[in-house]
Fold these 2 entries.
Entry 1:
Amino acid sequence: MSSKRYKKLPIKTKELSAELIEKLILEIKKNCTTKFDESIDLSLQINNKQKKSEINLRTIVNLPSGAGKKIKIAVVCEDSKQQVAKDAGADIAGADDFIEKIKAGEINFEKLICTPSMMIKLSKLGKVLGPKGLMPNPKLGTVTDDLKKAISDAKLGQAEIKNDKDGNIGLSLGKKSFSDDKIIKNFVAVLDVLEREKGNQTIKGDLIKNAFLTSTMGVSYKLKMPKNI
């Protein structure tokens, strides 16, 4: 059953013509009528059904305006690097003992970073970490010896760009409280990554088939994307 608040929101917005993000942000923020700071979310559908192969994207984007939320970061590393990780802002840092805790189901973090030499041990926990999307990956910058940079990037604001089997991608561009300019800067950063990824793939036509913008508790609007993506 829809709430009184939801019933006051516009209807059939998906039937409207696609608009540029600059215009849609104004409409999206009008619909943020809850008491909490709603996220401004981007939903994409990629053209992943190609004749020769399916397109699978998995990468990260560093959001210049940040993500608007704090995440708990854990690091698996050698004993000698644990203090470095903590000084860089890691909430948890450990070696073999920490891996055993993860194996036992003690997962109280939202992002996991690992040094290359410890990945041999951590990789055995694929069935535990994989389904939760927490397994470190070199392509995502979470398997590295440069712990300081990896932790800093994660804290400043990162979003993963990963499509599901139907070609859908979802990520947040920030919060309602962000200025329009900050949201647009994050959106441009996403576009830059998508353009780069398109160049790395063999794609016939556009990479993005459909794009929508919404808020956590709002309704979706069609988003006009640049023609080169």
Entry 2:
Amino acid sequence: MNIKLSLLAIALLAVSDLHGQISGSCVTDVLLSAYSERSYTSVPVTDQQLDLILNCGIKAPSARNGQPWRFTVIKDETSMKEIINNVVPGNVLIVVSGTESQGGTTPDFDCGLATESMFVAAHGLGLGARIYGSPAANINSKKEFFQIPTGYKAVVVLRIGNLDKSVDGVSGATPRKTAEEIINFKK
């Protein structure tokens, strides 16, 4: 196992600050503080940020290491507005597409894992990110226009941009359910 993967494994095993436990790692801090932002500035996402985010998506886990995804990066405002009407210049959309059919595998789930990896990476870089599922039908009806590769279908869209600092995670995020509402332990 290479050193980067070892360090990532150690970081993921670190105990989080949740429920008074020992302080967490930068990974858990990002996971516990991230939310799906709605307000962005027109400050552009840099090519270096985008490359790192895309590489995190490439490294995501997948069933049988099939990596059944393709990423279509959209930067031009006109094309972005065909997908999400409130984008601003400087935002980037990544259309995550999965193979159309693979018996016995889970390409949509795997695409979700890749999307989540890029979502966390964007937040780790101080950017905002939001995952959209509903635009997939529109994209799939115009695959050629959006340059979706043959044999693939759009699954989700990841929007990335610089945050509007006047909106914070507490007032800007939808309240989360409590642990008691969503976790049960088999006795």
